[in-house]
Design a protein that fits this description.
Elements (H helix, E strand, L loop, with lengths): L1 E5 L4 H10 L6 E5 L9 H11 L3 E4 L13 H21 L3 E7 L22 H16 L3 E6 L2 E2 L6 H8 L8 E2 L3 E2 L2 E2 H16 L6 E4 L6 E2 H14 L11 E2 L19 H7 L6 H5 L8
Parallel strand pairs: 1-2, 1-3, 3-4, 4-5, 5-10, 6-9, 7-12
Antiparallel strand pairs: 8-11
Helix pairs in contact: 1-6, 2-3, 3-4, 5-7
Bound molecules: NADPH dihydro-nicotinamide-adenine-dinucleotide phosphate, dtdp-4-keto-L-rhamnose and magnesium ion (MG).
Dtdp-4-keto-L-rhamnose binds next to helix 5 and strand 7.
């Protein structure tokens, strides 16, 4: 079984590579941007023709949500055209493509957690470019899994946990928005979900389409931040408590608009693949491993 992973130095890709490396009967080719720029169709076709993957996992993306408002062309190149190139090449050799997407494809004005068939209406260039990527993948390769996740974090990489711990080094008070809700998701749990899906696809379980997978419980960014600081204080990572004033989205203006409701309903992935939402708090327990 040959598996190709793109964007190998990314937050989620790093967890994925670690887990895929433990699988027997898998030959893994994980490439970074220099080795395989997914926006280059000639290079994509060459790598895929030579390696002949059974499964392509696209973990490469443009993820700077605010910068995407200014760098829209680059965001679309990486988040739409790149996945399209991979999906076309996958389809040509009858391979499966697994593509990661985001809660930011939704408007966030629904009161309920979003299901896979809900209307998409991204509010940002990042979200629009990711939605265009989903559509390009689905159009180009029928054997596709599109996995939407949310609020990803890991010990390594750029994420909210590391941002909060970095800010806490120089501030005693950090206002955090209390009116945007979602499911923080540990990158290792996203990788585990993908590996679980891979194993079942390999066993012949055909269940292509869009799936939601995120962590639990659903919280506001404010509650997420509070939990991070509480654990950091308890474990001596922080020497003094941090004040965390409740603020609103209006108090924290950003170039890109975020959904107020980012909650993803994860029933479908449970029914098809037996995956249950992971407890993000369990992954934060080793808070001293973060932000180093
Ligand atoms: N982070 C999050 O909170 C969430 C992420 N997602 C999705 O999960 C996926 C992975 O995200 P995450 O791991 O957090 O993102 P990261 O930004 O950590 O990783 C993305 C990787 O893609 C690489 N990359 C950028 N452009 C290209 C290119 N043209 N060709 C090849 N590689 C490229 C980057 O390389 P370089 O560092 O050199 O730029 C980086 O290593 C993305 O699809 C993202 O949209 C979904 C929901 C939440
Ligand atoms: C740094 C900071 C952020 N915030 C707010 C801004 C925003 O509404 C929220 C989260 O900010 P961030 O910029 O860290 O998160 P953001 O980059 O929007 O995170 C998103 O990344 C992309 C890639 C995804 O796909 C999403 O699922 C989501 O994880 O917290 C504060 O209120 N106070 C602060 O000090
Ligand atoms: Mg950000």
């Amino acid at each position: 079984m040959n598996i190709l992973v793109t964007g190998k130095n990314g937050q989620i890709a790093r967890c994925l590579v670690k887990q895929l490396n433990t699988l027997p009967d898998v030959t893994l080719l994980a490439l970074d941007r220099d080795q395989l720029d997914i926006t280059d169709p000639i290079r994509v076709n060459k790598v895929i023709a030579e390696f002949s993957p059974n499964i392509i996992i696209n973990a490469a993306a443009y993820t700077a949500v605010d910068n995407a408002e200014q760098e829209s062309a680059l965001a679309y190149a990486v988040n739409r055209d790149g996945p399209f190139n991979l999906a076309v090449a996958a389809n040509n050799i009858n391979a499966i493509i697994i593509h990661i997407s985001t809660d930011y494809v939704f408007a966030g004005d629904s009161l309920a957690a979003y299901v896979e068939t809900d209307n998409t209406e991204p509010q940002s260039e990042y979200g629009r470019s990711k939605l265009a990527g989903e559509q390009a993948v689905a159009r180009a390769c029928s054997q596709h899994i599109i996995l939407r996740t949310s609020w990803a974090f890991a010990e390594h990489g750029h994420n909210f946990v590391n941002t909060m711990l970095r800010l806490a080094k120089t501030k005693t008070s950090i206002g955090v928005v209390a009116d945007q809700f979602g499911g923080p998701t540990y990158a290792g749990d996203i990788a585990n979900a993908i590996v679980t899906i891979v194993k079942q696809l390999v066993d012949g379980h055909q269940a292509y389409g869009i799936y939601h997978y995120s962590g639990f419980p659903h919280v506001s960014w404010h509650v997420f931040a509070t939990k991070i600081f509480d654990l950091a204080l308890a474990q001596g990572v922080l020497k003094q408590p941090i004040q965390v004033p409740h603020i609103t989205t209006l108090d924290y203006p950003t170039p890109a608009k975020r959904p107020a409701n980012s909650r993803l309903n994860c029933d479908k992935i449970n029914q098809e693949f037996g995956l249950v939402q992971s407890d993000w708090q369990a992954a934060l327990v080793n808070i001293e491993e973060y932000s180093r």
